[in-house]
Amino acid sequence: MAKAYDHLFKLLLIGDSGVGKTCLIIRFAEDNFNNTYISTIGIDFKIRTVDIEGKKIKLQVWDTAGQERFKTITTAYYRGAMGIILVYDITDEKSFENIQNWMKSIKENASAGVQRLLLGNKCDMEAKRRVRKERADRLAREHGIRFFETSAKSSTNVDEVRHTRACPPLPETAVRPPPSPPSCSHQSLLSPTGFQLPGPGHLAQVRRPEIGEWVVLD
């Protein structure tokens, strides 16, 4: 049977709670928007397969909780990421100020040279704007990364993100699909023995801190 994709990329979204990370991922993966806000507990992910440079790329886009109490869980996923997308809310000054803290977290926990991208979300709410676009653009230039303003609600710039440097160049960083691993039972995200896993049919790399290694699940 032919492979369903040529390469697998793992992307991670980080930022304060409530900035719209989950809505962005749902818009990107499912082209849908849900007005109901439910805070992410720990970590979750969606998958979308796209065509880039004539290759089928499976994007694993990981959604992380923004609350401090989940920091130990979420930072465990930084090192395996090929691209990290930092998200703030243009109507929330504090979420923008905290981008510097998220940058520091990347430096401390992610692999050297990981691709980064800055997103100012909720740009459809211009009347409530608290962060000028020029400020974010200046911050992005200081860190040598790309910057977009997005709206999960209106889909503004959401699809364009996959064409930026948040997606690593194919020759250097693409990984081949791993072999089929042994089956594994689902466990609670907050249990001492593991993380809640996605349903059948999804491919995931899950950090198991108690055994100190990555486990590939199918």
From TrEMBL:
**InterPro entries in UniProt:** P-loop_NTPase, Small_GTP-bd, Small_GTPase, Small_GTPase_Rab
Give the membrane topology, semicolon-separated if more than one: Lipid-anchor
Q: Which GO terms describe its biological process?
A: bicellular tight junction assembly; endocytic recycling; endothelial cell chemotaxis; Golgi to plasma membrane transport; neuron projection development; protein kinase A signaling; protein localization to cell leading edge; protein localization to plasma membrane
Q: GO molecular function: any one?
A: GTP binding
Q: Which reaction does it catalyse?
A: GTP + H2O = GDP + phosphate + H(+)
State whether keyword Calcium applies: no
- Give UniProt keywords alphabetically: Cell membrane, GTP-binding, Hydrolase, Lipoprotein, Membrane, Nucleotide-binding, Prenylation, Protein transport, Transport
Which SMART domains does this UniProt record tie to the protein?
Answer: RAB (SM00175), RAN (SM00176), RAS (SM00173), RHO (SM00174)
- Summarize the subunit comment: Interacts (GTP-bound form) with MICALL2; competes with RAB8A and is involved in tight junctions assembly. Interacts (GTP-bound form) with MICALL1. Interacts (GTP-bound form) with MICAL1, MICAL3, MICALCL, EHBP1 and EHBP1L1; ternary complexes of RAB8A, RAB13 and either MICAL1 or EHBP1L1 are possible. Interacts with PRKACA; downstream effector of RAB13 involved in tight junction assembly. Interacts with GRB2; may recruit RAB13 to the leading edge of migrating endothelial cells where it can activate RHOA. Interacts (isoprenylated form) with PDE6D; dissociates RAB13 from membranes.
Q: What is this protein called?
A: Ras-related protein Rab-13
Q: What is the lineage of its organism?
A: Eukaryota, Metazoa, Chordata, Craniata, Vertebrata
